[in-house]
Amino acid sequence: MSEHVREGQGGGEWKVLVRANARPAFIEAVILLVVGFFLILTPDGAELPLVRWSVYAVMWTFRLGGLCVLAVALLSLKGWSGAPLADAVVSGLIGVVLVVCGVIWIAHWGEVGSKTGWMGVVIMLFGLLSLHAVRNSLHTHRSVAAMMAGSGGQGSGQSAAEPPGTDAARHEG
To answer: Between the CA of residue 80 and those of 24, 138, 145, what are the distances in Å?
Structure first.
């Protein structure tokens, strides 16, 4: 357990789960930002508007998605209980866009053996990894919600809405 939880300053065990999401989110953000800002994509050879759009969609998904995931990492580090759900939403959007664009690239440029075809496969794999992160984030979100419901969000085991002894008096009467 974290020092904050042992000292009673962290607000509960759920904050440990939320803060544990900061490191993987930060790593994901760095990868997305590096690829988004240093991989120069141009729609050369893309005759169809859909394919041209997909090239720009990939580039901006990496850039804006990286910034959003970085924000999620910072919110996780801060201990915001909504961070796992925000991570699931952001990762889901990133994953869907990248998988769809990867399929478009493979379909348009045909051969997987070509340079662009391989990039389509790599883009699709990035998308699938992001979609896998959604599953993990939703699991963390459900765990955090259950812990907060059981402890009233306080980490003490007593609901913040009920004063001590209220539950026992209700069952006796």
So the answer is: 16, 15, 12
